Each structure stands twice: as C-alpha cells, then as structure tokens.
Amino acid sequence: MHPQNSSTSNSEPRGRSAWRDIAVTAAWFVAALGAFEALCWAAFPQGPLGESQLRDYFWYGQSQEGKMRQLVETANLPPTSILYAGWINPETLQSGGATDADVAIYGSSFSGNMTAAMRELRPTLAIRFVGGPGAPLNHSYGMYELDRTMRRTKVAVVGVVSENVSNVLSMNNGTLLADGLMPYFSPRYDIVDGRIERTGTSLINSPDELKSALNHGSLWQEQLAVLAEHDAAYWAPLFAADVFDGSVTGRLLRRAVAKAHESRYSDAIHGSSGFKRDSYAAQVLDGLLLKMVADFRDEGAHPVVVLVATRQYDDDLGELLEPLLIENGIPFVNTFDVCPSTDLRSYIPDGHFTHECDLEIARRALALIDAALEERPE
Questions:
Q1: pTM to 2 decimals?
Q2: How confident is the model at residue 376 (pLDDT cuts 50, 70, 90)?
Q3: Which of 22, 97, 162, 364 has an alpha carbon within 20 to 30 A of 333's alpha carbon?
C-alpha cells in the first residue's frame, strides 16, 4: 500500500482555511468602516469637532449638488453668503454701483478688492463693479453682456486671473474645483467659424431659481443635462448627488477621484512651462478677451485689462496674454510686476493680495484710467 501524499491530503483544509481568513479579514474591514462612519456621524454634528477643520476635511467630498442643497436649506443666511454672489441677472447687477459711471469693472474677488482700493484712493470717482468670487472670463463676459444694457461708462476694466483660466470652458466652477462651492452658473462660449459665440446658457440664474430647481427635480435634471452637454469639466459622479453623500468613506473616495480629475483636466491647459497656447481653453481665453475689449470700444468705453498672477502660477498669465494685449494696443496692468506671485508676502492666508498690494495695483490701474479719461473727448 502506497503512503498517502501529504500535499493531497491537506489541500482541502488549507483551501478552506484561506477562504475563512479572507472572510474574517473582510468582516473586520467592514466592521472598521462601520465604526469609523458611526464615530464621524457622532462627532461631527455636535461638540467642538462639529465646527473644526477636521470636520471640513471629511465633508469636502460631498457632491456639488449636495453642498448646494445643504446651503439653500440653511436658515437665516446673511446677505454676504456665497449663495447670493455672482448670479447673472438684473437684480444682482442693480447692486453694482453707479449706472452713469466713470469706470465699470468686471471680474472676480481680486477685481472687487481692487475696486475697493480704488474707491479708497479716489472717493470722487464713480466706479461700478459687477462680478463673482472665483469668476473666470466667461462669467465676466456674461456679466458684461447684460450689464452693458443697464449702464453707461467711460472706461471699462476686466480682470483675468491665472488660477481661473482652467474654468473658462466651465459653466460652474464646481465641475472642476470640487472642494469649494460657488452656486452661480456661467455661460459657455466657443470659437465658431473663427468667432466667439455663446453656445451654452444656464437655466438657473438666481438663488430663488436654484432653490426651486432643487426642490422640483425636473428643472434640476434639465440643468444637469445642460452642464453635461456644454461644461467641458462636468462629470456626473462628482457633481450630482448620490448615495455617497451620506457616507464619510464615500465622500473621501469621491474627493480623491475629484482631485485626480482636476489635475488631469488642468494639466492639459497648464504645465511646468506655463499655459499651453495650443490648448482649446487658451484659444477661447484669447478670443473672449479680444471680443470683450472690442465690445468695450464699440460702446465708446476705453478698455483696461488687469492680469492677476496668483500663487503657483508665477508670471505664466503675463507670458500668455501680454503679447496679445501689446499687439492690439490694449492698456494693461500685470500684478506680477507689482506684487510677484513668487513672493508669498504678497498674499493673505485665503490667497488674496494684501491690502498694500491691492492699493498699489489700484494705483497702477488708476494711472491708465486717468490717461484714458484725458484722451476721451467731451
């Protein structure tokens, strides 16, 4: 009788043992995730952790729709809430300031801060500002298209910000920049037969319309369809609400995916050598800026452009746009020449310029505005 082969006799028990180990490990993993979820849900809504940076970190991965729903459901929001900022409608533009203006300014919060500095330096100058936080140039032009029907101005200023260039093909900043929330929507513009044309328009253009759409699903679904068709950065799993909004683990996973999406998208527009001139975003940016300046001139306003160099972008925006501005005789200020983005002392913690920088940028812009006003015939 041949002795039994030990490898044969032990194979079945060893196989069962391996599967049992896998099952036990999986069970412990699921239990650990459950405990982590329970701990976070218990800690975040109450106590000191509820308002901490750690709490914010775990909520970053919430979908943009989820963040919007949470915002519109918040009671007693102050007038300065992000919910009310940046909407392109007549009611918003009525708060812009003088309708018979010496200067009309368009852009993001950088332009808004420069406007405040101008008013401080020159209180008698009639200045109008309309814009939105984080506004890319397509938003500024959309604001301008409506605003030009509501006011007169002698000089028109537009700010272009380096960190917002990647959003020029987006209709909501959150389709690319998933951590924050800016509820307003922007038009989409494209190059059609060599000209800039509007190709996408938001169905939601006010806080009230946003609240109504989120409460009545059909309009919101139509808005998501507009974004899917016209927003180059839109991806439904990152923007639209889903079951992961209710899970800390799900939100962390979504945030990781969102960061990879942002990096992949932005890298096609900007790299270690600066902005990529052959990218479609850079071409639309060029076309939009020239179109906006041409429209300024058509209405009899002198144009001024402010190039805003932000952290991690060096003078990349100046290298991209200064040749275009010089070639077309467009006066401009480049903030890199005033407060270099390579010097972190130029900024406050939230990424905006210090007040001293805002004042110096305002002085440079006022010098160009003064020269334009002197040239203007009475």
A1: 0.86
A2: low
A3: 97
